[in-house]
Each structure stands twice: as C-alpha cells, then as structure tokens.
Amino acid sequence: VPNRVHGAWPRPLAFTPRMRIMDMTCETDTTVSLERLVRIERDNALMLSYILDTNSIGNFRLPPGTTMNDVNYGAIDVADMISRLRRSEVVDLTTCMNESCTSRTLERSESTRVAATRVVSATTASTATFSKNPFEERMTPSTNGVSASPASEDVSQPVTTASTKSLTSFFALDDTPLSSPQTCELRLPDTYATLSVENIRELAFEMFATVACDDEQLETVRLALNIEQHRADVVVKYIKKCKGAISNEQLTAHLHLRMMLAALENGSLGADEEFFKIRARAMSELLWSLQCSTQNSSTPHVRDDDEEGPDLSPANVLAEINRMLSLPDIDAAWVESLVEIIDAALENGKTNFRYPGVMGVKLYVELLSAIFDQVEDHTLAYDAPVILKSLEPVAKALGLADEAPRKTLLAFAIVRKAIAACQELGIECDGYDTSPVLFLLTKARNELRNVDKTMMPAVVSAMHALLQWGKFMMSDFMHTVQPPASHQDKSVMMIEPETFDVVVDITHYAATLVGYESAPILTDMCRKSARAEYERARISAMDNDNLEHGDAVCTSLRHIAQITANSADSFSAHLERYISNSPGMSEEVTGCFAAQLRESFSTDLYAWLESGPPLTIQSLNTIWAVGDLQSALVATGGTSVEPMGLQSHTAPLVFVWLSDKIDGLNTIVERCVSTEQWRVNKDSNSPAPSAVDFLRAVNETLTSFFNLRIPAHVSALRALTEGIDAAVRKFTSATIASLESTDDIIPPRPSKTRYKKDIVQKLRSEFKRARRSTTPLESSSIGAGVLRLQSLKFLLEKMSQLEKDIVPQWMEMQRNASLLEHPDATFEIVGKQWFEGLMAGAKQALHRAINVVSSQTAYCVIYRDMQSEFLDNIYYTGVHRSCDNITSDVLPFLDGVLGYVASRLDSQSRNVVAAALLEATVSGWMRVLLDGGPARVFTSGDIEPLEEEVEILSDFFIAGGQGLDAAMVAERVAPMTALLSIMSLSTNDLTKNYEEQATKEAAAAMTGAHAPSKPSSDPNADVFNSEVTLRVICHRADHAASKWIKARFSIGKTESSGGWFAF
C-alpha cells in the first residue's frame, strides 16, 4: 500500500511484504490459491489505501525515530482502525512495524524460497485489488491526483480561554479547522510496477535516444530529465546494439526487451543488473495491462489440459518476474529465457508491445521537462516548439498520436512547473518583469482552451489530477489569494488575484475535458472557501479581548458579523469578477459564496436567539449588526442570498421584553399614585406630578419599543398598548379612589316626622342663619377635583396623540427591521383591524374617570362646601322670593365654582363638571324638599316660587346658549319638576295616590311580578312611588295631612330643635 501520508512512495508494490496469512500458504508456488488470496485481501487493501489517502500523520502514533515507511501494512487491523478514526481517536501503529533492515536481510538470506513465495502472494493479491485496468478505464476523479503535505491538513484549534468558556454551547469548532497548505503536488495515477521517478525518466530518455537525430537534442533531454552521464552512456551503448532491429519494428515497448538482451555480456549481467531490473519492471507493467484485459474479457482464455508447453498467461509470467527479481543474484541464462517468455506472452495477447495509457503518459510528461529553459528557472526554452516537434515520434509510440492529448499533457507539465515555481518563489517575485507562475499558468490555460473533449482515458486521468489540483487551489481562496488574504503565514502558499483568475479557467477547462460541468465544481469551491473563512471569523471573534465583559456569546456574534461582512466585501472587490467572468459561470456561482456565509452565520445566530437572551443594548447591537452583514452579503451574492428570517426568532424575545416593561410601568404607576398629594398650586394650571411621571414612563416605554428596530409581529404592538391600557386603568382607579365616593358624601336619609304647627313655629323662630364658607376654592373640594380633572384630561389628550403617532412609528420600525432581513425586503402591511382602537381602553378609562371625578367633586361641592348655604339655610323659614332660596344663596356660589372650573379646564371638561354640578344641585334641592327636617314644611302656595327657581336654575346653566345644552339641562332638572308636580296636589289627592301606589307595590311584591322598570334616563323613575309621596305628605303644612299620618303610621312629632340631620 503506498505511503501517501508523507507524499513519499515506498519500493514497488511487488516487493512489499503482505499479511501474515500468506505465511501459512507459501511453502511452494503450487500451494498458493490466487482466488483465495483475492477474497482475503481485496477489501482490506482497498480500504487501507483509502484511509491512508485521506488522513494526516497526526492521526497515527508511531515509535520514536520511525516513519510511515517502517509500517508493516499487512499487520494492520483495518476494521479496528476505522472504528478508532470514527471516534476521533489516534490509531496506535507501534505493534505494526517492520523488522529492522538488518533483520530483513538476514531473513532473506536464510529463506530465499519463502521470500519469493511471499512476493508471488503479494503480486496475486495486488492483482485482485484492481479488477479492471486502472489506466485504460480510469475515467473517475482520483483523490491521488493532488497530494498535500502534512502541513496542509487541518489542525484543530479549540478555544480554551476563560473569556470564551460561555461560547461552547453556541460555537463548537469543527474537528478539522482551516487548511494552511504549504505545498501541493500534481501527480498522475500510480502504475502497477510503481517505478520511481528516476526509473521513469531513464525509460523516457531511452525511448527518446532511440529516435534522437542529433547529440544536442539528446543532451538537452538528458539534462532536463536529470539523467547522470554514465547512465546515459549505458543507455546509448545498448541502443546502438539493437537500433537496427528497433527501426524495423518501429518504436514500441519491444525496445526494452531488446535492451534487456543487450545488457547481457559474456553470459553475465555484471554491473548492469539494476539496468535489467528496471526494464523487467517496465515489461511487468505491460503484462499487468494484458492480464487486466484478459480478466475483463467476456471470453477469457482457458488453457486446455492437453495443451503442451508452459502456461504463458500474464499472471504466471508476472509471478515469475517477481520471483526472479526477489532473488539476490540473477542468472544471465534465465534472463534470455525470460525475455523469450515475455515476448511470447505479449505476442499471444496481441498487445503490439504498446505501453498502457498511464505508463505512456508518465513517460511523455517526463520528456516534456525538456521544453523548459535549463539556465533560467521557471520559464520555457526559446526552442520549445522545436523540442516538442522532436518528441512527436515518441509521443506517437506512447499512444499519443493526436495533437489534442499532447496539448493536454503539455498543459499538465506546465502547471506542474508552475507549482514548483510558486513553491520556490512565493508571491514575491523580485527580479522578474512578470510573475513566472502567472506566465506558466497562462500558457497552460491557452493550451487547454481549444482542446477536443474526446481523448484517451489515460489523458483524462491526467485531467482528473489537474482538476483535483484546481479544486485544491480554490478550496480556501480567501486564505491563499493575496489580496484579500493579508496574513503573514509563510507556511501558506499564496498566489495573486490574476493567478487565481487563470486557476479558475484551468479548473473550468479540466472539468469540461473530463465530462463535468464546471459551475457545480466552482460553486462547491466557493462554499468551501466561505465555510473556511467563516471558521476563521469565529476563531478571531472568540479570541477578542472584549469577551471578558458582558455576554461573551453576544459580543462574539457581533464581531463575527462584522468580520463576515468584511469578508463578503473583500470577495466582491478582489475575486468575484474572476469567477463570474470564467466561461460557463453565472451569478448563482459567485452568489453561493455569500449564501454560504449567510447560512453559516444564521446557524450560530439562531442558536443564540433561541437561548432567549434579554434585549439589552449589547444584544440589540448584535442583532442590528445582522443588517449590515445582510447588506454586504446581498451586495455580493444578489438573489442567491435569502432573507435572514429573524422574526420567528426575535418575536419571543420581544414579548419577554414587553412583559418586563409593562411590569415596570405598573410599578411606576403604583409609586406615582402612592406619593401623590394632589396639592393645588394657585397660580398653575399644570397637571399633577403623578400624571406627568406616568406619561413620561409611557412615552419611554413606547420609545424603547420602537427603538428596538427588530422584526416583531403586530400582535406585539397590541400587547404593548393593552399593557398601557391596564396601567392607565390602574392610574384612573387610584385617582378615583383618592376621592370620597358619592355614597359617603351624601348623608343618610333622616327619620320621617309629621307636621305640628307649634313645633314648626318654634323652630323657625329659633333659626340662626349659618355662615357662608370662606375657604378659597383651590383649597376646597372643587380645587382638588379640578386638579384631578386636569391630570386626567392631560393624559386623555396625550393618549389620543399617542394613538395617532403609534401607527407611523410602527411602520417605520418595521421598515428598519425589514432591512435586517434583506436590504431589498418590503415589510408586510397588516390589515387595518390591527390598528383600530389601539388606545381605546386607556381613553375609555380616562373618560369614565373624568365623569366619576366630576360627579364626586360636584357632590362634595353641594353637600360639603355649600352645606351652610344650601342644606342649612334655604327654606328653613319658608319659601321666600327674596332670601334663603336657590337664587340668593346657591347660584352665586355656583357661579364662582364654574368660573374657577372654566379658567382651568377646557370647554368640554367644563361642561362635564357643570352637568355634574347641575345634577348634584337638583339632588340637594330635592333632599331639602323631601328630607329637610320638621321646620321645612310646604303649602300649595309655595309651588309657584319653587317653579320660578327651577327656571332660574335652568337659565343659569344654559347661560344664554354658552353653557349646557337646553335639552341636557331639562333632563337634569326633570326630577325636580316632577317633584313639584306632586307637591302641587291636594292632601286628599296625595293620600289617594299613596294608597294606590302602596297597594300596587305590595301586590307586586307578593306575586313576585314587578312592573317593568323605566329606563334609567327617565327623570321620574325615582319620584313616582309611595315613598316619595309619603315624604311629601310628611312635609305638608296641613293638619289633615298630619292627622292622616298619625292614623296610619307610627311617625311622631319632633320635639328637638337640632340640625336637619337629627330628626
């Protein structure tokens, strides 16, 4: 098995010791079963070869001072090796080493026959390893075409610093990080005999020397092939002996049979034994090809039992050659017989002594070394066309009769020379007018440009090797092409962008010649380079010193996004045009580089977002950096770059953020209302501090939400406004709760009394007018109430304005957020129903609070602030038009109250307060008439002045059309009007009405059938009932009424002269 780990190749396969199982079956050649050995070794040999091809030396453990050349491949347990490599373990080869050179020499001396049998076993096993001719039929890409040095293998570089420990759950570095190639080798497939490069060159020189016309050309080829002078002289000497026969037979592999015989002098090989062995190995190559053809033939030759003579099948002849070559001494007579055997075997196979394709290609490629200048390095000789012309006879003898395969192999040889120039000179070519590497590769590209696609399989294998080299050179072009690469790693072979352009074209032509489409290959190379570039970005970001502060993952992602965006820009600026301008390319090919960067980054980004990071400034900066990255990627990759698709990942984060913000808003509300004193500033109409602080919190919450500028569903906006609605409701509830309720303000109903003239006269004669309140309005109930109304109205106006501003801000937020997805993205415009009534809940709560606070304030004014004027004074001494009535005592105070309200509230709020004051005035007025105490008794003659006061009160609130609406005023005073209509009835009618009403109400209560109630807006709903009628009778200044009450109720006469609440 070739040692591909070091790029070196051991001695020929036919001489490599095989597995121990051969020792049990190698007593004689006749005991070796070819079929048995094939079954045993086929799978192991193929699999072991593949493993060593694809793994670096770092995956194997060797004893100190040894190399892979010292490994006994037959002793390796292939199945165990595969298992260990899959577990990323190091394979221990210390127990599979060959014996020392001294021990092997002694063993061969003592047991020559056993060693020869092992060679035969190795030959038959290797024969079974390849069931087809690997040279004539080799049409698939070979991984052996390009060989990288161990330094080009990927070496894992895990990040272990303390600052990046938190990154492991998101950034698990690949087991095979970035490649840093030092060298790459362009190599043709192996031959059966595994002749060394020196051997191939000697055979090529031999074939050229046969047809060389002058000594100058021969010397040029010798120097190019680096053939020692004495070896060249030996070759020329033997050629002269058999040149005549060769001329008659034409130039074929038969030459080496003649040379083998020519090596015999005086019945002995003498010092030219190695010369003979090289030719024998070359002939075994020819026999191997014949054997493969025989095996693959549909009608293989079967030897008859009665057929006389030796079996000259290629397998037997190969076995004999290998046995002979393993002997310490070679008999000259045996050489003559072997030549005859080979000659007969080849004649039977009718091969015409033509070397198989790869052997011929190898010989011709080595001869092409002559076209390069032997003095000036890395350039073509001035007479290169003449030399190529002189090589045509040899090329035709090697099966390269057409110009197309010769041009293809010429390009192959030039590329190999360019590789050597690049390794020696690097990217800096001081002293050269132009880059030798660029010059040579351009020449190779020109040779490949017009080559016919149809060619022999062996040449196709050379194109496979060239294709593999091109893929190797492009597999990480962001790291190996300068610019964009800017590192100073001398171990990496660097090329210029112009050279990269030529490599892209060569890769295209090589892929076309082997029957592949170049676009998928270049697409794959772009993706590989993008993945490698992204891995470097990850490593660079995770090594950043700033990771020690804050969220390391978040900071790393932001740096990765920035570095990746720079990589996309660099690719677009320096390399994209070379790929897109290559034949057969399209935008999708160059776009896949950016698309792969997007795919790699999105994987890390989504993993981080799904971990649920809080939306802080740090995390938002990272998400916003995605927009810059996406813009750079789209500018590079165009339509190949898909939108980032962030909304499904960021939406949960937005809702978590909203939950925290709304909780904080509710906390602010609680703090504001708990510290609010509702102190009135005499010279200021500003709202309360709690309302200002609350609005500031709402604005900050909304501003923070719109400043997120990340993709979010419109339901998040609804959730935010609903949270604000709830906070407003909490604020309004607290504002209402800071006032006394109406039920607490209105005193309870007093006990009923019946009329007694003496008592009434006594009470009225003892009446003393209560003093009017001198408390300033701002310190009274109206001051505190107006301050609350100012605050509520202030919030209502701001909420209405916010509702108008929310939709445009949301649209702007979504427009900015869509740029994170794709620079050309259009954000989704949702239906209007999502934006209807965004702040409806808040406005409804504020409207309700304004009404409740107005009502409670109005009742406080009537029942608390105006208690002396209203409840204590009016009508206590009877109904008079001049004093102690609504006009004289109540309306002046109400006028001052309304003036105070009008100076601090807008007209709409003023009307709400005025309506509440009217309602509270009617309530207090009716309470004076129905529950004003024993001194307040009325006659039918009092109705007229009372009705006049109703009209005066109505006109007061209508204010000549500038106050409340007349219909509203009429509605509010309707209960008073209805009460006066009842009071205008005679005592007899009142008593009859009472009895009828009481009877109906009792019957309804017994049957459970209640009369249908009137709407609550009906002002007479609470007036026309037996309770009101009874109270009117109790306050009737009529002896008959008092007698009627005495006869039916236990309502006594009040003897006390206490306040009106004391009866």
UniProtKB/TrEMBL annotation:
Ranges of biased composition (kind: Polar residues)? 140-159
Q: Where is the composition biased (Low complexity)?
A: 1001-1011
The MHD2 domain covers 884-994
> Which N-terminal residues, if any, form the signal peptide?
none
Name the domain of life this protein comes from: Eukaryota
Against Pfam families, the record matches this protein to: TPR_PATROL1 (PF25761)
Chain intervals for the UniProt region annotation (Disordered): 130-159, 1001-1020
Protein name (database record): MHD2 domain-containing protein
Tell me what organism the protein belongs to: Ostreococcus mediterraneus
